[in-house]
From TrEMBL, chain A:
The lineage of its organism: Bacteria, Pseudomonadati, Pseudomonadota, Alphaproteobacteria, Rhodobacterales. SUPFAM superfamilies: Periplasmic binding protein-like I. It holds the Pfam family Peripla_BP_4. Residues 1-21 form the signal peptide. It comes from Parasedimentitalea denitrificans. It is found in: Cell envelope. Belongs to the bacterial solute-binding protein 2 family. This is Sugar ABC transporter. The keyword Iron does not apply. The keyword Signal applies.
Automatic annotation (TrEMBL), chain B:
This is ABC transporter permease. Coiled coil: none annotated. Pfam families: BPD_transp_2. Keywords: Cell membrane, Membrane, Transmembrane, Transmembrane helix. Its main location: membrane. It is a multi-pass membrane protein. It is found in: Cell membrane. It comes from Parasedimentitalea denitrificans. The lineage of its organism: Bacteria, Pseudomonadati, Pseudomonadota, Alphaproteobacteria, Rhodobacterales. The chain crosses the membrane at residues 41-59, 122-144, 150-168, 195-218, 247-267, 279-297, 303-322, 329-348. InterPro entries: ABC_transp_permease.
Length: 337, 353
């Protein structure tokens, strides 16, 4: 019995020894684990981690905006001796001290999808260029309308009143792409162009999209262009337009490229959407942590940008001159969620 | 039996004035106070009408039209239905934090049963309604039989149901176009009809019929009076022969069923089955109940008040949006309304001295 105990203790010690010797471990911290975008992100990270033999621990806030759980997760990762953290922050500025603590402890911290404030608080950001994503659908909408773009009536369905950066970038990108003068590019709603009927918030879901669309239609029933923050909001806006009998006269554009969204583009609910690639963000992130653990190399930003651009593509079945796009068949191959 | 022991006769001999309440004429304020005391739905009704008039004066025909008025009804239908369930629970001096989660999971059950298992839509809807009722009944059982506080039970149930909802649905949305093609029955409550410029949906009709029915039931049936009695003083109710436990379980089960109907209406409203919708329904329903003048201490208030409460929130939301105000102002004003409503409630409670 005593020998058995000793040998198993030895075996245990040996296991612990190898675990700490050359194993690389990484953490993935997302806003929630329910949003298909983050589910896909986790799948991408898990696949890449398995491929490279990296131990991955995943954490998520309970709801979007759950800051405390994310801080606790960062602390857990430091305590576990992880080599790096992939983070989509719920509160981009308040999380900075916790991120700094991790970097001081020798971890590489990579922000996925959502840049921190300031952006250089993380070692690198792997994200969609949300301004470009907005710009593409703005250019497409303007080109699709042709000469009528000068008299367009535009509804802007944004994310939330707190104006998260992602929402602002997409909104302002769309307006710039459409050819509307921006006020302060760091916030939406301060434009004076009479073509904008109004801004309303959707929380990025169907119910919010429908209500916001109804409110703006009550303000001006002649709206003919609708910008939406994401595809669920677009689906809600479409329901509102349908109940007004105007679904065939209005152009809806969106951003995300989720599978239901691409199907909506195919069915003509959404005119065009800018597709982003969460799977790529996560797998690139895992590779970067592996490189950091092995050689101490930090990832580099894309030329001319302060983050690593994981790319964006315009998905539409009605391509226009001057804006490159892919069709819905290709979009469906690459979609997430 | 002596004359003095014969209570019936003794009571009959007593002068009727001994046990009567006098409505003393004390001027306008006191009479108003008395009217509010006897008709609890009056305050929210006055606020609602005042809000409509004020926004109508500011915004003119854009707001004061059959179209905008019925749009408000469409926008509050889900909250209105859920708030009716919440009213029942709060009348028993309880609270139900799981209402929104029950509504959402019921809609997910209706959708997934149809699309994942190929169950006919009629059966899926019945399953969804039964599922909501079962969760409500479980809440009631834990509260009545296990003597757990309603706040704790429904706080836990809220998390359980929401997590189960995400796990079961994998957070996948069922698209509106697919539902319209394969199971239009799921969207039934979103069907609309026009009366002049006014647009109604079956969901709106459901809300109004539900509230009127519940108002009648609460006022004129034994079960309804028992709900009030249990909320006012459960021990006194027990001593008077009310089966308190049975009443409580039936109230929570009925609330679950009503929430499941709200889930069905939700599919009609947003077209799709979306597991992420309805996140704030519990708070919004409690807001409507409080603004509607139902006492959180139970036993007092009217379900009509709740509907007015939900409509007040709807009028403020649309009115402020049409006048171009930042959406934050809506929250600020509704917060002020909640506190004002409770203050008025306290004032009404004070018996005129």
């Amino acid at each position: 019995m005593k020998r058995l105990l000793t040998s198993s203790t030895l075996a245990l010690a040996a296991m612990v020894g190898t675990a700490s010797a050359d194993d690389i471990s990484a953490c993935l911290i997302t806003k929630t684990d329910t949003n298909p975008f983050f589910v896909k992100m986790r799948e991408g990270a898990e696949a890449k981690a398995a491929e490279l033999g990296i131990t991955l621990s995943s954490y998520a806030g309970k709801v979007d905006g759950d800051h405390e759980t994310q801080v606790a997760a960062i602390e857990t990762c430091i305590a576990n001796g992880a080599n790096g953290i992939l983070l989509t922050a719920s509160d981009t500025s308040s999380i900075v001290p916790a991120v700094q603590q991790a970097r001081d402890a020798g971890l590489v911290v990579i922000a996925l999808d959502t840049p921190l404030e300031p952006i250089n608080a993380a070692d690198m950001t792997f994200a969609t260029d949300n301004f470009l994503a907005g710009e593409l659908i703005g250019q497409w909408a303007a080109a699709a309308l042709g000469d009528d773009a000068a008299n367009a009536k535009i509804a802007m369905l944004d994310l939330g009143v707190s104006q998260p950066t992602v929402g602002v970038l997409r909104d302002q990108g769309f307006l710039q792409g459409f050819g509307i003068d921006l006020g302060d590019p760091n916030k939406w709603g301060d434009e004076t162009d009479p073509r904008i009927v109004g801004n309303d918030v959707t929380a990025g879901n169907e119910e919010g999209g429908r209500k916001a669309m109804e409110n703006l239609l009550a303000k001006d029933p002649s709206i003919n262009v609708v910008y939406t923050i994401n595809e669920p909001a677009a689906a809600g806006a479409y329901e509102a337009l349908k109940s007004f009998g105007r679904e065939n006269e209005v152009l809806i554009v969106s951003v995300d490229g989720g599978c239901p969204g691409v199907a909506d583009v195919k069915d003509g609910v959404i005119g065009a959407t800018s597709q982003q690639y969460p799977l790529l963000m996560a797998s690139k992130g895992i590779e970067a942590i592996a490189a950091w653990a092995k050689d101490g190399v930090k990832p580099q930003a894309t030329d001319g940008k302060d983050f690593f651009d994981t790319g964006v593509a315009l998905v539409t079945d009605h391509p226009v001159d001057g804006v490159s796009s892919v069709d819905t068949a290709k979009g469906a191959d690459l979609c997430w969620g | 039996m002596t004359q003095s022991d014969n209570f019936e006769v003794a009571a009959g001999n007593a002068k009727p004035e001994i046990a009567s309440f006098e409505d003393q004429e004390k001027g306008l304020v006191a009479r108003f106070h008395h009217a509010l005391h006897t008709t609890p739905a009056l305050v929210p009704l006055i606020v609602l009408l005042a809000a409509v008039v004020v926004f109508g004066l500011i915004l003119g025909s854009k707001f004061f039209s059959p179209f905008a008025m019925t749009l408000i009804l469409q926008q509050v239908q889900i909250v209105g239905i859920v708030a009716a369930a919440q009213s029942l629970v709060i009348l028993t001096a309880g609270i139900d934090l799981s209402v929104g989660a029950i509504a959402v999971i019921s809609s997910v059950v209706m959708g997934q049963f149809t699309f994942r298992y190929g169950v006919p839509p009629v059966v899926s809807i019945a399953c969804g309604l039964a599922f909501g009722t079962a969760i409500g009944a479980l809440n009631g059982w834990l509260i009545a039989r296990m003597k757990l506080p309603p706040f704790i039970v429904t706080l836990g149930m809220w998390q359980i149901v929401l997590a189960a909802n995400f796990l079961y649905s994998a957070n996948e949305t069922i698209r509106s176009q697919d539902i319209a093609k394969q199971a239009p029955l799921l969207q039934l409550l979103g069907a609309k009809f026009k009366v002049g410029g006014a647009v109604f949906t079956l969901g709106v009709v459901l809300m109004i019929v539900l509230v009127l029915t519940l108002a009648y039931v609460l006022k004129h049936t034994a079960w309804g009076r028992h709900v009030y009695a249990v909320g006012d003083d459960p021990e006194a109710a027990e001593l008077s022969g009310v089966n308190v436990k049975k009443v409580l379980i039936s109230v929570y089960a009925l609330a679950g069923l009503i929430c499941a109907f709200a889930g069905w209406a939700l599919i009609g409203r947003i077209g799709s089955v979306s597991p992420t919708s309805g996140q704030l329904l519990n708070i919004e329903s409690i807001t409507a109940v409080v603004i509607g003048g139902i006492s959180l201490f139970g036993g007092r208030g009217s379900i009509l008040g709740t509907m007015f409460g939900a409509l007040i929130v709807g009028v403020f939301t649309l009115g402020l949006r049409l006048s171009g105000a930042d959406a934050q102002w809506t929250f600020l004003l509704i917060g002020a309304l909640i506190i004002a409503a409770v203050a008025v409630d306290q004032w009404i409670r004070k018996v005129a001295s």
